[in-house]
Design brief:
The structure is a single chain. By secondary structure, the chain is mainly α. It has a single domain, classed as Tetracycline Repressor, domain 2 (Orthogonal Bundle), CATH 1.10.357. The chain contains ten helices and no strands. α1 crosses α2 and α7 crosses α8. It is globular. The two termini are 21 Å apart. Pfam families: TetR_N. This is TetR family transcriptional regulator. Keywords: DNA-binding, Transcription, Transcription regulation.
Length: 229
């Protein structure tokens, strides 16, 4: 099963099927985090990210300001915190790939699986909140900068896995930049079109074609690189 991909949108997620069911304390923590996130999104959409304070988010979520900071370190984290759940997804997909499969093949498979599943973490969701978050990020410079920082961390995580396998840190950085670049380009196109209101199925079909074409292009330069023994 492909790991879920990070994207600059998405509600705090529940455990995947097959994982250990969380206990009561963990469920309550997730419920509180989700309530804070939902309250923040509603306020940000109504008034703009910069015009909403953490105290106002806390009041809307019926928690203390300290509780908000216990769950999310900054106001930016309140909105983008769910991305942290996915920072290592690309690296994990490459690390866990089958023998004989290249890094590019593993990431192509993962991305196409996410698109086919209409995964909300890629932006392929009809949820109004997902679309609202995409627009907020696009229109708010501090959030856009934070999202770019996340993508860089994801690239660095992938590069570390490739360097450990191949023993060449420089080429690993080059390969990771190209592979993550493909994914970022696909995600950016999905986000742009979903924020513009394009139909979900049309966007998904075009995203799958773009992903195949982009990975084909990259593989011409990375053919034979990082094929697992």
């Amino acid at each position: 099963m492909a790991a879920r991909e990070a994207a600059p949108a998405g509600e705090p997620t529940a455990p995947e099927q097959g994982s250990r069911a969380p206990g009561l304390r963990e469920r309550k923590k997730r419920q509180t985090a989700t309530r804070i996130w939902q309250a923040a999104v509603e306020l940000f959409v109504e008034r703009g990210f910069d015009k909403v304070s953490v105290a106002e988010i806390a009041a809307a979520a019926d928690v203390s300001k300290m509780t908000v900071f216990n769950y999310f370190g900054t106001k930016e984290d309140v909105l983008l915190g769910p991305m942290e759940e996915h920072v290592a997804d690309a690296a994990d997909a490459v690390r866990d790939r089958a023998p004989g499969e290249s890094a590019a093949e593993a990431l192509r498979r993962q991305l196409l699986d996410l698109i086919e599943a209409r995964d909300a973490s890629v932006g392929l969701s009809d949820s109004p909140r997902t679309i609202q978050v995409l627009r907020l990020i696009t229109e708010t410079p501090v959030l856009l900068h934070r999202a770019h920082s996340f993508h860089l961390r994801r690239q660095q995580s992938l590069a570390a896995v490739l360097a450990a396998e191949t023993g060449d840190a420089v080429l690993a950085e080059v390969a990771a930049a190209q592979l993550i670049g493909v994914r970022n380009a696909v995600f950016a196109e999905v986000h742009r079109r979903r924020a513009a209101g394009d139909p979900l199925d049309h966007v998904a079909a075009d995203a799958a074609r773009l992903a195949r074409d982009a990975f084909d292009l990259v593989e011409k330069g990375l053919s034979g690189y990082a094929v697992k023994a």
